[in-house]
Amino acid sequence: MLKHTTIKTHKLTINQANELFDNCRDLVEYEQGTISMFGKTFPVPRLTAWYGEKSYSYSTVTHEPQPMPYWLTILKQQVELVANTKFNCALINFYRDGSDSVSWHSDDEPEFGGDPIIASVSVGTTRVFKLRNKNDKTDQTSINLENGTILVMGKGCQPNYLHCVPKTKREIFQGYRFNITFRQQV
To answer: What pTM does this model have?
Structure first.
């Protein structure tokens, strides 16, 4: 497993996961931002919604904050118990099918502090989540994030590792997936 961080997983009940899936599908207004790379502008390959008190920017994308709805606040409190830390914001990613993705990155923006604990909740279709050490290519892992999985990336993860949800054509990984990522914005 990984040498410089702790990763732990926990599962929601199937009823909790199904209710959360319905809330993410029916109650959230998503945006599709654009990202600029190599002098060209592309649509972000997923839809997103940002909840918190302050705006959030990464690459060339800026999200304006929305107040956290009651159902998301209840989930945040449950995830805080699993992660043993407090969160004050959430990014919801909507992966519509296997062609939606997020490329290799670290959530190491200064607004989350130097070494943040980040917890994510996945509901819907299973997708592969990959982590790899920034300096040691042998230090890597893949985790199938199934419906209802809570994944906690502990101290050491963001400064030392990159993570991604790659595109896939595998039939088993097709279908709606929502990922709610909780963070502490300073």
So the answer is: 0.93
